[in-house]
């Protein structure tokens, strides 16, 4: 997991407020560890842990960012429960987006990096582009492989 967190810190160096990061991969692939690394790289306050039961957790900007520059707040979302029932799956994600908006986060999404676990098919609607990070975990060992790319789209 340390390598995954270090990778997250390196990714954070290229992220700015308003960016959306979608983390994709099976259970145990390292999505939360990667989010923890991104948070450390952004210089957020507090411990970054899985927001599964609260859906979204805000992490306020700290006093400094790794590698220099101003720290950036992070909103960490676990969309697993938002996409969990058949009604949400069939409405194109509209209900899930409404639920995310209903959380009434204090941090404006434009003022933070938004990291969404299990967000494919939903989080893309939050911005004109997003960073998609796909994590794979090999079943025979602890090796994890990451593939990432910026994806442009229209709202």
The CATH class label is Alpha Beta
The number of helical elements comes to 4
Strand order of the largest sheet: 2-3-4-1-5-6
* Largest sheet report: 6 strands, mixed
Q: Order of SSEs, N→C?
A: HEHEEHHEEE
Rg, alpha carbons: 15 Å
C-alpha geometry? globular
Cα end-to-end separation: 34 Å
Quaternary structure type: single chain
Instruction: Say what the CATH topology is.
Output: Rossmann fold
From the 3D coordinates, which CATH architecture would you assign? 3-Layer(aba) Sandwich
The tally of strands reads 6
Mean pLDDT: 83
Your description of this structure?
This protein is an alpha/beta fold and 155 residues long. It has a single domain, classed as Rossmann fold. The protein has 4 helices and 6 strands. The chain has helices at 2-12, 31-42, 86-90, 94-102, and strands at 20-24, 56-59, 73-78, 112-117, 129-137, 144-152. A 6-stranded mixed sheet has the order 2-3-4-1-5-6, with helices on one face. Helix 1 packs across helix 2 (31-42). It is globular, with a radius of gyration of 15 Å.
């Amino acid at each position: 997991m340390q390598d995954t967190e270090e990778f997250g810190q390196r990714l954070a160096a290229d992220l700015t407020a308003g960016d959306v990061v979608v983390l994709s991969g099976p259970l145990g692939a390292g999505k939360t560890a990667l989010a923890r690394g991104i948070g450390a790289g952004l210089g957020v306050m507090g411990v970054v842990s899985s927001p599964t039961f609260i859906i979204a957790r805000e992490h306020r900007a700290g006093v400094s960012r790794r590698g220099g520059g101003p720290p950036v707040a992070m909103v960490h979302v676990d969309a697993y429960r938002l996409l969990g029932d058949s009604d949400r799956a069939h409405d194109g994600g509209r209900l899930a987006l409404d639920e995310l908006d209903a959380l009434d986060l204090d941090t404006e999404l434009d003022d933070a990096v938004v990291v969404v676990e299990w967000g494919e098919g939903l989080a893309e609607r939050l911005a004109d582009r997003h960073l998609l990070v796909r994590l794979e975990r090999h079943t025979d060992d602890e090796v994890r492989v990451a593939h990432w790319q910026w994806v442009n789209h229209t709202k």
